[in-house]
Structure formats: structure tokens, C-alpha cells
Amino acid sequence: MIKIAHEAPIDIFDEVQRLTDYDYALVHLLEQNGRYRDTFERAVKKGREVILDNSIFELEEAFEADRFAMWVERLKPTWYIVPDALENAEKTMEQMGSWFKTYGDVPGKSIGVVQGKTYQEIKDCYRAIDELSPCDMIAISFDYSYYSDSIPHPNKYVSWMLGRVKLIGDLLKDGVINKDKPHHLLGCGLPQEFSFYKHADYNFIYSLDTSNPVVHGLKDIEYGSEGLWSKESQKLHELINVDIEDINLDKIRTNIQKFRWFTNGQTPLGSIF
């Protein structure tokens, strides 16, 4: 079973937490938002598994290393994502080397994100993370530009969905994937992508994170039986302070239920649907 986390506005964090397997924190919000920080400190204290992200997707560059290390030390998450560089394999590995040299003793297990613009770059970056770094988990993102080259399609979200499926399949076929190491899938283009990973060949996929069912519920969009064929472009961190009175919880719950079904063939934990 793949563990699932959905980022959510603070006002409904507890509700969404009940329906997910672990929690996913964005470091820049820990620094900017006291309520958000308190929420995740409570999650850690009560023993929830937590991944701390370096916020590169939201900020378009990784959080400054010294400050990120400080927040890892303060929050003490289960996992943290080592600072990386979007689609730049060489810079990602340089930053990773610098991180472990300077901050290798911070608490928690480390996640290295594969980066690159071509299959060869992605493959080389994967091997470097797996063989040359102490990373405990390897992450693969949902929106590499390579996917549009690999699976050209007029709907870019279909390219992203099938592109990651193909990338993981190619890495398996070429003997690159280390099945003895857990893997994380970063983000989501279309929710039905995760139905491709139910086969035992993908048991190395440990976890995924996405705000997709929450964001679409906030926009009053309900998943169909086949998922979605488009994607709201707004990022969840821009909606973190939405007031509960403006939230359609039923639609969010329904989307979470369907997302879990696509991924694991299960309804949410303690389902109330």
C-alpha cells in the first residue's frame, strides 16, 4: 500500500489528517505562519509520520540551506527533502554533497529528488543519489519537462501522467531502480495516474504527496469515476488560510475517497463516506 498525504488549509488540517497516512509540511510556511507551525509541531508530538519539503515547487528554488537545516532541527520530521535544483542534475548533486558535508547530522531520514532534462540526465542523477549519497529514500517528480518529450500529447497533464509512468517503467527495465530502497512520488498531474502502480512490481513506491483532491474540492470540482482530465493551476500554499466557512468539505472528502481508490483500491481510513 502506498502511503498518502494531502496538504490542506489549516482550518481543515485535522479533518484531512484523519483520512491520510502521514503529513507533509512546507518549510517556508513553517517560517511564515505560526498556526501552520503549531499544527505540524503537534503532529510530530503525537507521533505522526511527517515529511518536511524544501518548498522548491512553491518557491521555484530550494529554501536556503542554513535556514532549512534549522527547521529540520526544530521540527524533527521523520523525513526531510534534501535541497535540490529544478531539472538540473549537476547542481542537485552539488547541493546534495554540500548538504551532507555540512548538515549530515540533522535529525530525520533524508530524501533525494531525481532531477534532469533528459532521460540520461535523470538516470545518471538517480544512480548518483542511490549509489553515492546517504539518502534513505528517492523521490521522482510529477512535472519534468522531459515527460512532454517522452509522451507528446495536446493535453500536458496526460503527458505528465503517462510520462512518469513510462519513466519509472524505463528505469525498471534498465535495471536502475533500487527496489530495496523506498521511493516517493512528488505531486500529481492527474489522480488516475496512481492506478498504474498497484502491481507488485511497484512495491518499492513507499509514499506520495499531493494537494490535488483538496485543491479541486476547494474549487468545487469533484473527481469523476475516471479521475480528471485537467488540473487547477493554483498551489495549495496560496490557499493555506482559506476560512472553513468557504470550504465544501463534502466535495474534498469525496475526492480523497476516490484518490485513495485510484491509488490503493481502498476508501480512506475510518471512512465516513
Describe the structure.
The structure is a single chain. The protein has one domain: Queuine tRNA-ribosyltransferase-like (TIM Barrel), CATH 3.20.20.105. An 8-stranded parallel β-sheet has the order 1-8-7-6-5-4-3-2. It has 273 residues and is an alpha/beta fold. It contains 11 helices and 8 strands. The C terminus is likely disordered.
Secondary-structure blueprint of this entry?
Blueprint (H helix, E strand, L loop, with lengths): L2 E3 L7 H5 L5 E4 H6 L1 H12 L4 E4 L2 H4 L5 H11 L3 E3 L7 H15 L5 E5 L5 H14 L4 E5 L4 H5 L5 H18 L9 E4 L18 E5 L2 H7 L30 H16 L9
Helix pairs in contact: 6-7, 10-11
Number of strands: 8
Main β-sheet: number of strands, strand sense, barrel status? 8 strands, parallel
Overall body shape = globular
Strands in their spatial order, largest beta sheet? 1-8-7-6-5-4-3-2
Keywords:
single chain; alpha/beta; TIM Barrel; 8-stranded parallel β-sheet; about 40% helix; about 10% strand; globular
